[in-house]
Structure formats: C-alpha cells, structure tokens
Amino acid sequence: MYCPMPLSLRRESFPREGADMKITDIRWAALAGNFDWLVVRVDTDEGLYGWGECFWGVGVNEMLRTMKPLLIGENPMDVGRLYEKLIRSMSGVGSLAGTSVTAITAVEFALWDITGKALGAPVYQLLGGRHRERVRLYADCHAGESLESDTEARRITVRDKTKACARATHTPEAYAARAKEVLAAGWTALKFDLDVPLAWQHDAFNRCLSNGQLAQMEAVVAAVREAVGPETDICFDCHWAFNVNDAIKLADRLTKYEIMWLEDPIPAENIDALVKVTQDTKTPICTGENYFRKFGFKELIEKQAVDIVSPDISRLGGLLEAFKIAALADMYYIPVAPHNITGPIGTFAAAHLSAAIPNFLVMEFHAMDVDWFEDLIAQDEPVIREGYFHFTGKPGLGIEIDDDVARAHLLPGEKWFDE
Q: Would you tell me how many other CB atoms lie within 10 Å of the CB of residue 291?
C-alpha cells in the first residue's frame, strides 16, 4: 500500500535558507606572512560571503581565474557537487594538477563558510559535530631561530647548502634555547627542522649521511629533550632529505628520546620505501603534506606506510576530502596530525576538521613569528592560547578579517577586497 509522506516531513517543510542563493564573485589577495598567505573570498547575491585560503604556490592565481566562470551563478551551499564539478573541469589543466587542487581547496573552504553562516552552524557541526572543544597545536620552532631570520639562508642554492647549513645559530644549544622559550609560552608540543644544521661533507645530492652527521642530529634531539623534559611532545622534520638505510639509522638513534614522530625522512613518492623505514624502526614515522585528494593517500594508508599521517588541509582538496582521508586512516587506527603553514583562515579551517574527526592527534601552527597573526582576526580574545586553538562560536568557519590589518600586510601590487 502506498503511504504518502506526512506533510510535516516533505521537502517543502524544511528550512530553505540559501536555497536560491547564487555566487556572484570570486576574488583573491595575497598577504606577506611567514609564507605568502593566499586569501580567497566568495560573494553571493544574498550578502553572505565566505573566506578561504590555500597553500601558497606558483600558478594558484591562474587556476582561480580559470575556475571563476564555472562557479558564478551556482548555489554555494552545494559544496560537494561544486567540488566534483571543479575537479572534473580542472583535472586536465596541463601539468598543474596539484596546483588546481590547491586552488579548489580555498574555494571549498569559502563554500563551507557560506553554508555554515546560512544555516547558523559552525563548520565542524556540518561535518558531524566535534569530538573536542579545543584543538591541540604544536609549535613549529624551525632550527634554533625564527623562520623569518633564516629566510636568506633558505634561498641559497643547493650547491651552496654547506654555507646555509653552517650557520652558528643551528647548534644543539640554540635548539634547546628555542625549546625553552616556546615551552615557557605554554606550548606542550614542539617541532624542529632536523635537516637544517647539517654540513654536507660528502655530496649534496646522494641523500647519504655520515656518522658525524648522524651524531650531530642526535645531539640536537638530545638537547631539545633535555630542555623540555619527558612530558613535552617533540617531533622533528627531515624534509625528504635522506635515503632508506640512513633514515633507519637516524630513527633508531632517536628511539631512546621518545619523540612524537620523525617527519618525512625520505622522499614521499615511493610508498614501498617508506614502508621499509616505518617497519624497521620503533620511532614513529610521519608524512602526508605532499599528497593530494583521497586517492593520493589510499596506498599510503592501506599499506600502513606511516605511523602518523599529516595531510595538508589547505592543499589536498578541501575539508570534505580531508574528512574522507581521516576516515580511511581511522580504519587502520592511524592518527591524523594536520600539516598547516597557512594564515588564520587556513588555520581555522584545519581546526574545524581536527575537531570533527575521532583520530586527531595534534595540528601544526607555523606562524609563531608573525606578530600580527591574531590582529588579523577581527575579535578581541586570541584564538590561540597556551598551545590550543579555541573556537569563536560563530557560524561557518567563525572568522572575520580586520581589513586595516590585512591592507597593511599585502604583498606588493595586491589589493584588498574593499579597495
């Protein structure tokens, strides 16, 4: 027997906030943070707008320009459908597949922001609700000094890497001093670059480590551990610098220091090689920032090639895609520690994802040396306090930008949205 749906449950009876909303414009601007912070704004015909941000990179502006006509006139609340539309339309754009996904990420953030505002709900609520009321962060402490002060050294070509890495500031003592400084500010988890202090004695290209270099890196880790004590979590980034054999040697030497993880000890492209590193050491191995979309993480997770996965939420395709990656990792009981080098908008977005997944471990904060980070957020109370991200309670991503602060920190030649 046919039973008609009760009137109270028919589609017409549900709230229709934003049902006929249309995207009218997409604009972007770059701020000069510790990296270039590419901010995207999506406007609608109902006065709502959404903020987005993505990982910096060459060509992202061009991808946004190409995507813009594909989105004008669309309903911004159709987040999943518009994501698929952009993926299918942009996936064949030359050799910039990763760049196009990065650009799509910023737009996807903005669509979630608009949807949350239209429904009066935070984005983490739209992703299923939060597992935690605040998000634990780890401070990226670089290599004994601020990233800003080492910019010149990082621009030195690989042939001159010995010169860049022989700086007196990159010593165990400098690492320890930085660790104490950050610990005193209330942080309970810290990350340092471990490949920076190396003096490449033999060959800058063969990924091999001498016994002296291994001892040098162990001395750095030992100094940091002694400086912060046994209760503070510490992790170390190798930036894909070493070969399998030497990565295992390094990881084994660090076992006694009980670090939270050793990040990217070998290049990310060979999953089987990464499996060998992970299986042959007790030191936890972490990677993930150089993979895109759920398909890029499939083999990494299914082969259990790492102990901890670190997807870059502002690069891989967006919040919904990151949610699916976290769900796949959860099937193998692998924790997720989001990589994050963006400004406030990207940080807010990654925090919403971190709150909404059960297998979250800790999230990166890379802007300790940007003294105007909190000023850019239009609210009185800081969102980052004592090593945690605190939500604002506002709908959408929960962030508004201070226009005056943004204009003061634009990259040369850029215009802010109210200009």
A: 25
Answer left, alpha or beta for residue 73, where phi above 0 means left and psi between -120 and 50 means alpha: left
Cβ neighbours of 369 (radius 10 Å): 16
Measured between alpha carbons, how far is 267 from 291 in angstroms, rounded to an integer? Answer: 12
**pLDDT tens digits, residue range 225-255?**
999 999 999 999 999 999 999 999 999 999 9
| The CATH number fitting domain 126-397, selected from 3.40.50.300, 3.20.20.120, 3.30.70.270, 3.40.640.10 | 3.20.20.120
In whole angstroms, what is the distance from residue 39 CA to residue 64 CA?
11
In the chain, where the domains are located = 23-122, 126-397
Q: Quick one: pLDDT band at residue 198, thresholds 50, 70, 90?
A: low
CB distance 66 to 90 below 8 Å: yes
85's CB contacts (< 8 A; 6+ apart) are 70, 74
Stated as kind and residue range, the H or E segment containing 377 is none
CB 231 within 8 A of CB 183: no
Phi, psi of 89 (to 5 degrees): -80, -30
Selection from 398, 401, 400 nearest residue 121 by Cα: 398
3-state secondary structure at position 187: coil
How far is residue 337's CA from residue 315's CA, in Å, rounded to a whole number? 14
Q: What is the pTM for the complete model shown?
A: 0.90
Q: Are 236 and 191 in contact (CB under 8 A)?
A: yes
CATH number 3.30.390.10 given to 23-122: yes
pLDDT digits (tens, 9 = 90+) for 394-419: 999 999 999 999 999 999 999 999 87
3-state DSSP assignment of residue 23: strand
Distances (CA, A) of 108 to 22, 53, 89, 116: 15, 9, 15, 12
